[in-house]
Automatic annotation (TrEMBL):
One of its GO terms (biological process) is tRNA transcription by RNA polymerase III. One of its GO terms (cellular component) is RNA polymerase III complex. InterPro entries: RNA_pol_III_Rpc5, RPC5_C. It comes from the Eukaryota. Residues 146-155 have a biased composition (Basic and acidic residues). Residues 444-698 form the DNA-directed RNA polymerase III subunit RPC5 C-terminal domain. Residues 146-169 are annotated as: Disordered. This is RPC5 polymerase.
Length: 698
């Protein structure tokens, strides 16, 4: 109240709404005018508009007599645009840039809150604006100048053509037949930028006539900005009750009302959800969540909901998988829709997704490649299916998203039996469509006291694979015993009793067996070529009899060839390459006799390599094998000295800049190396990250 007393009403002004120029009045916003142009007396040479796009082009004359106008620059621009000849197509007929074109763009998409006001004799007259356009200079004449320049260059290049070139060259024409356009392709084409630009260009310009500020026609048109009558009949919009007037000032958003989905599928409050029928509630929830236990569904539907009715409705939109409900494929992919990735019709997508659901009824794990091989669908579609109901596990596959719901299975055996029969029918259809191998279709045996399928974990699969390898152990054992007998017959000490042989045991702390756990599957259950059960007990790190020399030769050949290709290797990388080499060898090869880390490192040093003591940072997360770096010291080529200097640099620095390396090489080698030579040395030994150079593997 105090504020109202301090701010008294001085004057009341009547407001009138003028309708004569409704949907005809535009507001033009001109740019800051140059000194050579005044809008008060400027001459508008032409004006045109595209009403649908609300696009305007104005052509205005420039005062070339103004002292601020640069005449030489105007002549140069006109010459660049039109050239020396003058005809009807010339942009500047006076050989002088004497006009400027302005193009419009919409300053605001919604102008319903803007109006033009005229105050006269204590009355305020408002006219709603139909558009607000900002005018900006158009520089299309520069494009025309560039086109003229290219034409002149082309004419100069092709001016000296001979008579032999007078005839047109024969050109090959490729004829293509377009496919019938699908509805989805047509929608993409209609929404493309190119199509919209073409459509805008097709609208014809409507030429306008410009009237000056003091023209009589302008005076006449300005009178339409005033309300034509002050009677109540023509101004009933402004005579409203306070509530109606407030509604006019703050109308409800029509866009929000139109955007509300009939059956909400994106953002939906629980209050809105519970206003829908029970079947629609369940369908919307399952379509959004895709996988849900029955207990969670009941909690979302609220207290007092009949579970029998829910069970009856849920079976219409979902299938039972491992005691949980998964939304049906035809709910996610309705008829007459297609894949957003590949354009495959909904019917094919439903079959592929049903196959994935059926696989999860048999096992908790599904392999993506197997699904793609059977369904023949693109990887994106297969990934969508799997993401609906499972989670990716590294090196294992896709695991079903939820744990087995044993409570629901025990409480509702009739539902479980009915769903089992439905899955049997789906299985029969999938068998006909995909032509399975019968092994894929045979359901796993269920335990007598458990209603759910047998679950096989990743560890169980590994154990099964190991058991399968042990079954083939007999044949490998016979070959090994045969080779052992041959070696005994060739050895002079073979007559000695095996029990009298004393094998020297090396301390475990001095050397450890090579870590090949990452390559167990590659060697078919063997460690460095020997079965895990025999590798330490039978040989204990030593090689029998005359086999030592052959193993040493093979190992030396491998190390030498590897370092001549790589030059710098960490122990971890060398072990990885050695295991790959073992995997490529035939069974019974001499290198399968068991190679320890110490034997491998000793052989590296024997072949002319050196260990580079790289000063790794204290906070490094590298493993001990990654901290051991070996390099070939002499390769016998012209770059040996350069590589040795480079390795000496890295024995003092963990990372080095290129300019430091190049300066050091020039100083030590006594010559200026070119870029190619430095690149060659760096490529042999180093890698680059973020402008810094590191030794390979570090």
């Amino acid at each position: 109240m105090a504020n109202e007393e301090d701010d008294p009403i001085i004057q009341e002004i009547d407001v009138f709404l003028a309708r004569s120029l409704l949907e005809k009045l535009y507001l033009f916003q001109y740019p800051i005018r140059p000194a050579s142009m005044t809008y008060d007396d400027v001459t508008h040479l032409s004006a045109k508009i595209k009403p649908k796009q609300q696009k305007v082009e104005l052509e205005m004359a420039i005062d070339t007599l103004n002292p601020n106008y640069c005449r030489s620059k105007g002549e140069q621009i006109a010459l660049n645009v039109d050239g020396t000849c003058t005809d009807e197509t010339s942009t500047y007929s006076s050989k002088l840039m004497d006009k400027q074109t302005f193009c419009s763009s919409q300053a605001a998409s919604n102008v319903s809150r803007y109006a033009a006001a005229v105050y006269k004799k204590g009355e305020l007259h408002l006219t709603p604006l139909h558009g607000i356009l900002q005018l900006r200079p158009s520089f299309t004449y520069l494009d025309k100048a560039d086109a003229k320049h290219r034409e002149r260059e082309a004419a100069n290049e092709g001016g000296d053509s001979s008579q032999d070139e007078a005839e047109d060259d024969v050109k090959q024409i490729t004829v293509r037949f377009s496919r019938p356009e699908t509805e989805q392709a047509r929608q993409r084409r209609v929404q493309s930028y190119e199509f919209l630009q073409k459509r805008q260009a097709e609208e014809h310009w409507v030429h306008l006539h410009y009237y000056g500020l003091k023209d009589s026609r302008s005076e006449h048109e300005r009178q339409y900005l005033f309300s034509q009558g002050h009677g109540l009949a023509e101004n009933t919009e402004l005579i409203k009750s306070p509530s109606e007037y407030l509604m006019m000032l703050m109308p409800p958003s029509v866009e929000e009302e139109n955007d509300k989905p009939m059956a909400p599928s994106n953002v939906l409050s629980m209050a809105q959800l519970r206003t829908l029928p029970l079947a629609d509630q369940i369908k919307i929830l399952m379509k959004n969540v895709k996988v849900m236990p029955f207990a969670n569904l009941m909690s979302l539907l609220g207290s007092g909901t009949d579970s029998t009715a829910v069970l009856r409705c849920i079976q219409q939109v979902a299938m039972l998988v491992q005691g949980n409900w998964v939304v049906k494929s035809d709910v996610l992919y309705p008829k007459d829709t297609s894949s957003p990735h590949s354009g495959v019709p909904a019917e094919v997508l439903c079959r592929g997704r049903d196959f994935v659901m059926w696989k999860f009824t048999q096992d908790r794990w599904v392999v993506r490649k197997e699904v793609a091989a059977v369904t023949k669908l693109c990887p994106e579609d297969v990934k969508d299916f799997l993401e609906h109901m499972s989670v990716a596990r590294i090196n294992k596959g896709w695991e079903f998203m939820l744990p087995y719901d044993e409570d629901f299975v025990k409480k509702h055996p009739d539902i479980v039996q009915r769903q089992h029969m439905l899955w049997m029918g789906i299985q029969a259809k999938l068998e006909k469509v995909y032509n399975f191998v019968k092994e894929h279709l045979t359901p796993k045996k269920q335990e007598a006291q458990s209603a759910h399928a047998l679950l096989v974990s990743g560890e169980q699969r590994v154990n099964m694979a190991k058991a399968k390898v042990k079954q083939n152990y007999g044949q490998l054992e016979k070959e090994f015993q045969k080779q052992k007998a041959e070696m005994k017959s060739n050895d002079t000490s073979a007559k000695m009793d095996v029990s009298n042989i004393h094998i020297k045991e090396e301390p475990v702390s001095d050397e450890e067996p090579m870590d090949t756990s990452g390559y167990e599957g590659m060697n078919n259950g063997i460690v460095n070529g020997l079965h895990a059960e025999d590798s330490t007990d039978s040989l204990n790190g030593h090689l029998p009899g005359g086999c030592i020399d052959r193993v040493a030769q093979e190992l030396k050949a491998f190390v030498s060839s590897t370092f001549r290709k790589q030059f710098v290797l960490t122990l971890s990388e060398l072990k990885r390459l050695f295991n790959l080499h073992l995997a490529s060898l035939p069974p019974g090869h001499t290198l399968f006799s068991g190679i320890s880390d110490k034997m491998l490192q000793d052989m590296v040093l024997d072949t002319g390599c050196k260990q580079i003591l790289v000063p790794f940072p204290p906070q490094t997360a590298a493993s001990p094998d990654e901290l051991k770096v070996y390099a070939l010291w002499e390769a016998g080529d012209t770059y040996d000295q350069h590589r040795q200097v480079l390795l000496e640099i890295f024995s003092k620095n963990y990372r080095v800049r290129r300019n430091v390396i190049q300066n050091q090489l020039s100083q030590e080698c006594g010559e200026d190396l070119n870029k190619q030579e430095v690149d060659r040395v760096l490529k042999d030994c180093c890698v680059s990250y973020g402008g810094m150079w590191y030794l390979k593997g570090t």
